[in-house]
Predict the structure of DNA replication and repair protein RecF.
Amino acid sequence: MAILATNLIVENYRNFPSFELEIDERLTMLVGRNAVGKTNLVEALQLLTAGRSFRRPSPAELVREGASSCSLSLNLTGEGRVIDHACRVAEGKRTFLRNGKRCRAAGMRGVVPSVLFCPDDLDMVKRGASVRRAALDGFGVQLNESYARLEGAYERVVEQRNALLKDGALARDLIGAWDEALIANGAALTVHRLALLARIRAYVREFYAALAGGEEADVSYEPTWDTEGADVIAELSAPAERASAIERVHEHLARALATHEDEEFRRGITLAGPHRDEVRFSIAGRDVRTFASQGQQRSLVLAWKLAEVAVTRDILSRPPLLLLDDVMSELDAERRAAFIAGIEDGVQTVITTTNLGYFDDEALARSKVVTIGHGQA
Ligand SMILES: Nc1ncnc2c1ncn2[C@@H]1O[C@H](COP(=O)(O)OP(=O)(O)OP(=O)(O)O)[C@@H](O)[C@H]1O
């Protein structure tokens, strides 16, 4: 049985003095003109399910202009439980609460994970590898605490190692200890990524073909140390071989670091490791950044999001809350219909739109339509 988000209440949050949203167990459509606050509500739902927002706001930005504090709360109901997730901002500080008890942002994760699509996600195909790495890690962190710990630890090691590299030759005696930490955390993080990407990849291929009338898309992982361009996903991602995969990545990474040492000291940055690995998308065998149309790029990102939904269900045995902000523009009618059909039954979904005309009668019949107007803001 799923746990569902039932109602969101916000006070003095962004452009809302006070607002309550009752969320349908299947499909809720937030309809309204530009700038009425639809994305703000989606952001609130992400904050209260994932402990983070795609906009990365400072606490003060969440508070309505002219107010001194704000509060957001979301009821999650199911499996015989009611759980209240809340976030408050006062005096410039953000606090999360679970059933009234203070917790860290990570305390918002794990009950109902969320998968969000927003127009900025198109950066996943348009921009550099860091956006794709962040998408993969952001998803992994929600699903698995050890992924979250590893990602945080690795990031700190890279920062500290880079600081030492910038100190120059004097630091050469000290770098060894940081090499060890980088290689150990880096190898484990790489294998976590490979295992997750292998799961996502299978669904991306399936969903993209369904959205794009059979056209083929793919996603691959290219580590900085993989100089031969081998298909490491297939080789290293089988869960049963996790320990030996980590050992093998460990060796590759150690060798790569040794090769780059002089250049690293010259440039003051760490040149090998998961923080520089590439996640590459292709359509019909060609790199999407230079080749794909807007509609193809959007379809590929949507296929990735549907893949996140399916993988969440596979791993946690329950579906996530699916948040779709302005998802339909730039898709033709066929792709729009295929996308809506691709949302599995039982996946609680919130969609924002300026135009209900994007949705067919069947989708409208099974959804709760909530009009957001300036009166509420
Ligand atoms: N802290 C704040 N105080 C007051 N208003 C804010 C605050 N933060 C954001 N806003 C306002 O909220 C408004 C609505 O933003 P939002 O992005 O949710 O609109 P939207 O309905 O999704 O619009 P669109 O259809 O154009 O994407 C913006 O005009 C913005 O200026």
